[in-house]
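INFO batch 0412 | record 1 of 1 | parsing
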Amino acid sequence: MSRPGLRAGPARVQAALDVHGLGPRVREIGASTRTAAEAAAVVGCHVAQIVKSLVFRCRDSGRPVMVVTSGANRVDEAKLAALAGEPVGKADAAFVREHTGFAIGGVAPVAHAAPMETYIDADLLAHDRIWAAAGAPDTLFELTPSELQLISGGRVADIKA
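INFO prediction complete | emitting tokens
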């Protein structure tokens, strides 16, 4: 159930979690969780347990593709391009906000402005619990890898560099 008092972005994330029976989970931390290292330090977990939600732009079609990866990993753009069927590049801040509704540093793996193709880093499945941004650079939510698959509709893939 959505909690009153959440800002617009985190409230949207909580509403998406509620649809899947995963509420209330959004936590307003009161400190920056913009980077994987900051988020891990705040919640007391390994950087590998932090979910980075990264948006890439397909170079030919211009469509967005999301990669949900472990905070310890970098994305191999060649592997992602093979999955997407065309070359990709990192998206700029305006493109990210347009397609997700969130600013970089608080991009959640759900509740986007429009649905997009999503790939999940296979390394995230090695953890019992993971943490993801919840729509603002000082919010997080905890979940399992299987819950991440459910709420994001993402396809698990080997995408790390």
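INFO post-check: The CA atoms of residues 78 and 99 lie 22 Å apart.
INFO record closed
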